[in-house]
Amino acid sequence: MSHNTKIAIIGTGFSGLGMGIKLKEAGYHDFVILEQSDDIGGTWHENHYPGCACDVQSALYSFSFEQNPNWSRRFAQQPEIQAYLKHCAEKYGLMKHIRLKTHVTGARYDEARANWTVDTCDSSKLWAFMQERGVKPGDALDRSDEALPEFQSFRADIVVSGMGGLSTPAYPDIKGLESFTGKSFHSQDWDHDYDLRGKRVAVVGTGASAIQFVPEVAKRAARLDLYQRTPPWIMPKPDRAIRWWESALFRRLPQTLNAYRQSIYWLLEGRVLGFVGNPQILKLGELQARRHIRNQISDPALRKKVTPEFHFGCKRVLISNNYYPALTRDNVNVVTDGIRRVQGNVIVDNTGREREVDCLIYGTGFKAQDPIPAGMIFGRDGQDLLDAWQEGAEAYKGSVIAGFPNFFMLMGPNTGLGHSSMVYMIESQIQYVLDAIRQMDHNGWKSVEVKEQAQSRYNARIHSKLSGSVWHTGCQSWYVNENGKNTTLWPGFTWQFRQQTRRFDARRYHCEAVTAAVGDAAAAT
């Protein structure tokens, strides 16, 4: 990367690809999409553990403008979703805009030029450096280290981050973990070359990824110790194969596929009434989840271990038909005593019991509270984005941050969902960003920056709504940071968010027009 560009997009998941497609449709061709991996797909390329699948129906978890009549199941698995994204990139001519194996090491706003300097390097060389130095994903890089790969820089008028909030792996803080002598990996970095057959395996964590891969691991391992801190609420998964005649109908009459998609959308949208409106409504869901436990587990002691003690919906509600049966296998042991320390290939729980293991798998999720690592994005006056977020991540409409002109986020703070498809939210934000770019061009604005007061008022309204939601009923979850601030979820109907993002509201922004030489700027509003 050495040439300059109008728009730099980071990531090739639904956000980055969707942004690129809509830019091209609007007549913009001067943009690049930067991807650190060796293939496109974002989280659906990075996560490839056994059993990896979506927990939202495929018909809705897809672009509205590129509906797919050929899904094989109601809930698609990872290979099929990644194939869908590759199809979109190829169909809409994005491949020539994509730069694979390109890691964004940093982006800094230049106030004089009113644009961004973006630093990149070869991802494969960077991974080798990080392994050698013991640096984990998400850790800040020491830019003074002479062994760092060579950086290449270019300028972009606008930067759009399509980095998902669930992209940086989180690891548990356990004494002696670095001394483990067996095989270990995070669910996102699954080692398919390691043969689990006949092995003694320990899994730490029981989140969304773990409930998908644990049944697969249990089939192969000689013994599986599942270390559970807090059990999740789990509902039956209404999954099945799509029948041949259904696919044929969707292909012949696309309006039937759209009608099916809309029925799913409104069915899921109704859940908001319980999450935000009246949490007591969720008691019906809790009754169904308890029945699910009774139907699949006969052992009273195991039933008690896997039954949560927090409000249904306070943490992410999961769906699975094979997780509970996997826990009843003779070779599976659910450990609820916690981990005191790790010694060599031995895990010692808090009762002092020792268990030897050959392989340790982390099902501990992601750093949702730190969606962008420190030392990566620097705005006005050289401020690190994480310094602006000392009390927790926040943005205006989940898309822009005061002090960071011409920087847009997709899937930013408080755009996450506990009830429906993130693709719907992503498309809403893409429309907002695209309208901002159009207005910048139409009005001759070189930069736009949301007013701090507008951002503060917006977030005050958001957190006022969140305070009465089920997510603030006392449990500890990755939705809420250490200060008790919910930085991740949208507290309302998704159609309400779409209404808010339909048009770029320039009156909430400082908009500057460059009138002469670079740097000679006058405030337009």
Mean pLDDT across all residues, rounded?
93
CATH top-level class of the largest domain: Alpha Beta
Shape: globular
Q: What is the fourth-level CATH superfamily of the largest domain?
A: FAD/NAD(P)-binding domain
| CATH architecture group name of the largest domain | 3-Layer(bba) Sandwich
Question: What share of residues are in beta strands?
Answer: 15-25%
- Low-confidence runs of at least 5 consecutive residues: 516-525
Using brief descriptors, characterize the structure shown.
globular; disordered C terminus; 15 helices; FAD/NAD(P)-binding domain; 30% helix; alpha/beta; five-stranded parallel beta sheet; 525 residues
What's the structural blueprint in terms of helices and strands?
Blueprint: E1 5-10, H1 14-25, E2 31-34, H2 43-46, H3 78-91, E3 98-99, E4 102-110, E5 115-122, H4 123-133, E6 152-161, E7 183-186, E8 200-204, H5 210-220, E9 223-227, E10 234-235, H6 244-252, H7 254-269, H8 272-277, H9 283-296, H10 300-306, E11 318-319, H11 323-327, E12 332-335, E13 339-343, E14 346-349, E15 354-356, E16 359-362, E17 377-378, H12 385-388, E18 407-409, H13 422-443, E19 445-450, H14 452-466, H15 494-500, E20 509-514, E21 521-523
Parallel strand pairs: 1-2, 1-6, 2-3, 4-17, 6-18, 7-16, 8-9, 8-16, 9-12, 10-11
Antiparallel strand pairs: 4-5, 5-6, 13-14, 14-15, 19-20, 20-21
